[in-house]
Write a structure and sequence with these properties.
This protein has 8 helices and no strands. Helix 1 packs antiparallel against helix 2, helix 2 packs parallel to helix 5 and helix 3 packs antiparallel against helix 5. With 207 residues, it is mainly alpha-helical. It has 2 domains: 107 residues, no CATH class; 59 residues.
Amino acid sequence: MSQGGSAGKSLVKGEYHRPQPLVLEALAIYAQCKNMQSLDPSREAGTILAMTVQIAYEMGYHWDPESLGLFTVFEGEMRRRFWALLKQVDLMVSFQLGLPSNIYLKNCNTKSPRNLSDADFNVDTETLPPSRSENEYTGLLWLIFKDRQMGSFSAACREALSFDEKSETQILELDNEIRRVHSKIPSVLRARPMADSITDPPFLIMV
């Protein structure tokens, strides 16, 4: 049996359709694996992600944990991280398939995760530490800035699929917003020649 087949059977046996701990993470990883099996956009991955988004809505991931008051500091920040990742993957796969995103950002208030390393907090943390400088690279910094770009990118995708004609002024407003967000990207995340990246860790170069 293939690994994909085994993973699918495990999800079915675990009742993936029922909101429960770690089901979203399992579904998202499974969808990403399906998407990476081919260079072409994966409709199967798109379907799995749509289901993942629906369950995430049922579990309140689109509401910031602070507004719910049901989670520990650690659980809340991990939920923000997962929601930020899910928004990005869902939007990109939907874009590749020429379909609207399954997440409507205007009905979400979940904040972006903080720029923290995994060593900055743990399951016993009672108060979340302040975010590190955005000029200081952590493994999460790229996710945070991509999350900020999702608003304008989502708007551009939505307009591309819309039957409504937009005026030149409206198009330029969106273009200016995209450029404004892009201008805020810190230098540590900007592309540069490999000759200037000799001392950079591999994961930073790949970002």
